[in-house]
Amino acid sequence: MIYFDNAATTFKKPKEVTDAINYALVSYTNSGRGAYKAALDSGRMVYEARVKLASFFGACDPSRVIFTSNATEALNITLFGLFHTGDHVISTVTEHNSVLRPLYKLESTKGVGLDFVGIDECGRLKYDEFEKYIRSDTKAIVINHISNVSGEIADIEYVGKIAKKHNLYLIVDASQSAGSINIDMNKTGIDILCFTGHKSLFGPGGTGGIVINSDIMLDTFKVGGSGVQSFNKNQPSEYPTRLEAGTLNIMGIAGLSAGIDFINKTGKANIHKKEMQLVKRFYNGIKDIDGIRFYFDKESLENEPENIRHGSIVSFNLKKIPSADLADCLGEDYDIAIRAGAHCAPLIHKAFHTEKEGIARFSFSYFNTEEEVDETIKAIKEISLNYR
């Protein structure tokens, strides 16, 4: 199978990741629940993973790296733990339902006010709208770093300056960017970063987290076993225990930690360059197909791969072929896996006017090859000629 659905999850993982998971299965037990070697080794591994992630994202305090099961849980903990009645939130139409649905629930249950910054025809954010939407009760900006539909990268540093100017929190959904491009929370002014482990961080499913880089104290999302303060009727107030009730995913965290090691060893810049080489090769191979419509800023791909500012996503539709049919043809006739449809991001599809037909999304990974790209280009051209 040729796999180009890496924006959903990376299919091929570094050997270091599977080795770390296997080692954890036979060597570690429950972190923070005992004073014997396997428990202590597990606790040290978890702490080292927090330190790696804090450094990886340019944050200050490893104790404010909170492990979750995925980005959706991280975003739910953050949004429900921060916003209350009387607050106003600015977000964007590029958001995934992992942001939209919590915000809509906060709107309906707590009266939280919402405004969404729009995009232009290429999927670029209308940055002038951020300050237009700021009100006296605005508490935060919640923004998707890389769109999982278009691959457009938001200018977080610019938005961070707006947030700081108006004393707002900046919350970033880094589901698509964590691991694929450099993120420096201190430099960009990010207060809370939510990430998932199973995409560009090359970790296993069931991993993710929150990185808090300010004095925010989020409300507890769940309470229960903590391994400490057992006679306290309340969940301990300190991070990370404040938000980590119950047993951690030790094997998953071990794999995620190994994924970080692989990225650090390989280099984020080298990973991004390889992915942009594939993106550019793919785009150049299909751009002249009759009736093709792309959903991103094509001019960004004119740069050399190392200077391209784009996610590893190419999204398009062919005039006569519904996106679902294209995905089915590629899967059934060529064993090529892609994603078609709405991608859990309804507002950006409304902005692109693709609610009915969806969009065909091809997403690339460091482990994809030029040969796979060339085979896929050939397949798309054959389908476009033969489709009836």
From TrEMBL:
SUPFAM superfamilies: PLP-dependent transferases (SSF53383). Its cofactor is pyridoxal 5'-phosphate. Its EC number is 2.8.1.7. The keyword Endoplasmic reticulum does not apply. GO terms for molecular function: cysteine desulfurase activity. It comes from the Bacteria. Residues 2-374 form the Aminotransferase class V domain. InterPro entries: Aminotrans_V_dom, Aminotrans_V_PyrdxlP_BS, Cys_dSase-rel_unknwn_funct, Cysteine_dSase, PyrdxlP-dep_Trfase, PyrdxlP-dep_Trfase_major, PyrdxlP-dep_Trfase_small. Pfam families: Aminotran_5. Keywords: Pyridoxal phosphate. It is an enzyme of class 2 (transferase). It catalyses: (sulfur carrier)-H + L-cysteine = (sulfur carrier)-SH + L-alanine. Belongs to the class-V pyridoxal-phosphate-dependent aminotransferase family. Csd subfamily. This is cysteine desulfurase.
